[in-house]
Write a structure and sequence with these properties.
The complex is a heterodimer of chains A (108) and B (77). Chain A is an alpha+beta fold and 108 residues long. Helix content of chain A is 50%, strand content 16%. Chain A starts with a helix and ends in a 6-residue tail after the last helix. Chain B has a 3-stranded mixed β-sheet with strand order 1-2-3. Classes of the chains: A alpha+beta (108), B alpha+beta (77).
Chain lengths: 108, 77
């Protein structure tokens, strides 16, 4: 487990915005992941994605890492923000845009 | 294995006694639900904390037998 944790630490700190999802940004494999991508694209920030369907270790490990049972999961500057419901609520309240500005996330 | 809407509602209400729970069956297939959970005890809690409380109430089913639950949380007006 600690090895997976180290891998995830590295991934979430390598880029400002990282989305763990099912499928790729071009071909999301689930409605929730698709919604998360749509929000990020709409806000025009640069982001990296990790396809958990391609990596069983990460797929299980990420749930323990954040103590969060579902995917997608959004990380900004290494910090867990939430899943697609939280992203949508934050987006609708203008809070996601605000978070990206505060954290000085670069545009796509 | 899908879950019935009534079971989801009852689990949430057991875990969060002051919650008002509305469940919609999004696809009509007993597998894709949306839940809106309104509770006074959410006041002062972050979105993450609120959702965690709902997930805790669902006792580990989230992401397992309950894979497609769209969740929104709020405090009463």
């Amino acid at each position: 487990m600690s090895e997976v944790k180290a891998r995830i630490d590295e991934i979430v700190n390598a880029d400002d915005v990282v989305l763990f999802m099912k499928g790729s940004a071009l071909f999301p494999q689930c409605g929730f992941s698709s919604r998360a991508i749509a929000i990020l694209d709409h806000l025009g920030v640069a982001y990296e994605t990790v396809d958990v369907l391609q990596d069983a270790e990460i797929r299980q490990g990420i749930k323990a890492y954040s103590d969060w049972p579902t995917i997608p999961q959004l990380y900004v500057k290494g910090e867990f923000v939430g899943g697609s419901d939280i992203m949508m609520e934050m987006y609708e309240a203008g809070e996601l845009q605000q978070l990206f500005e505060e954290k000085r996330v670069r545009a796509a | 294995m899908a879950m019935a809407a009534a079971e989801i509602e009852s689990l949430i209400r057991t875990g969060i006694p002051d919650a008002v729970v509305e469940i919609s069956d999004l696809a009509g297939d007993g597998d894709h639900y949306a839940a809106r959970v309104v509770a006074e005890s959410f006041r002062g809690q972050s979105r993450l904390e609120r959702q965690r409380r709902v997930y805790d109430a669902l006792g580990g089913r989230m992401g397992g037998e309950l894979h497609a639950l769209q969740l929104s949380t709020a405090v009463p007006d």
